[in-house]
Amino acid sequence: MDNVISYLEGQRTQALEGLKDFLRIPSVSTHPHHREDLRRCARFLADELKRIGMQNVAVNPTSGHPIVTADWLGAPGRPTVLLYGHYDVQPAEPFELWESDPFDPVIRGDNLYARGSTDDKGQVWLHVKALEAHLRENGRLPVNVRMLIEGEEEVSSENLEAYLESHREELGADVVVISDTSMFDYEQPSIGYALRGMAYMEVRLEGPNKDLHSGVYGGAVPNPLNVLSEMLGKMVDGDGRITVPGFYDDVLPLGVEERASLAALPFDEEGFAGRLGLPGSTGEKGYSTLERLWARPTLDVNGMLGGFTGEGSKTVIPSKAMAKVSMRLVPNQDPERIAHAFEDYVRSLAPPTVKVEVIHHGTGKPVLTARDHPAVTAAHQAITRGFGKEPVYIREGGSIPVVAMFEEILGLPTVLMAFGLPDCDAHAPNEKFHLPNFYRGIDSAAWFYEEYGRYAD
Ligand SMILES: [Zn+2]
Questions:
Q1: Sheet of 300-306, strands arranged across
Q2: CATH number of 197-251+297-363
Q3: How many whole angstroms from 183 Cα to the centroid of ligand 1?
Q4: What is the pTM of this model?
């Protein structure tokens, strides 16, 4: 590895200049007028992959933006990594809030400023440089690598599912590696191993067939808003437990070891609540804030509509009421099962005086990669070397739909090797990549392929 690391040290300028060229292409996937830029960006990446010695490099057309694939499979008996990333970026608007042109990368202080610098071009590029170092110095990679870099991540990966379905064989691997998220904190690298899933529901109630005068009719007819509030109010009890029957049946309890590891994270409880203008945090009894955020399921009313909400007063008993409800789910809850349990519960709570409609707005599966998976161990060793500091293990409260897709369609676990910072401003003006993390990230990636290569397939 000495030769690989010293090659990378000698390549820092080239690595940075290459990334800048990548960032100059305005690959904004949501804007139709950038369509040609996305093709150009895909070709730029493909040319680079060919140049470093990756094989079977292809720019695969889809009905949207192309997917770039490549592989290097010359390590029989070694594991295979599927590296996923995206070359498309969020729009840069509002341009006037940028201190410099979002598509003309500049360095200020320790940061490289440009749209896509962290999300995700910089984090893709660091893997490209790591692979280049192995290929140049040793003529081979320590593991088998397949790459899949899409151009539609910022527009819901519209064509990825179909692509995965129809290319299962070509995408066979042992693990997916993604560098597209943020570290736990400044100077605190982390490895992500779990994400929550979701079920999103809408409840509609109808009482009387028209809005009624609350004086003439009030007291003798059902009020859908009152009924809906009462129903929703029953869904979480005084201990913060969700009362949907069967809701917790499949929840994987946190082990003693994992709880200890989450408790050891440097989490600023007061700062967390303070930044939100709250006197303190709240939630399910018996769990810490991080456990509530990452490893316990939720049920939240996202919005309610009905009746009179204008200025002043108007006396009315509304005919209809509606609420949107999201449930964040954890391993091993099945979102479809939960969605149906929710619907059954709504119907059981509703009195016969109202008509009930429950709409299912979509689900996403929670994911969990075993913390003792060899790729997780390899990532731990690699980041420790790259950063000179051990990473912490974190879950994420949100979801990354592609991770669930890889698990569902390809049956693969995912390791999140994050090199962004919490304030990198991905999706916002003045997005930046902390350059020390770019170089540490390159070294960490190079070490990852080396360390994971020590495992026999
Ligand atoms: Zn991203």
A1: 300-306, 320-329, 197-206, 355-364
A2: 3.30.70.360
A3: 14
A4: 0.87
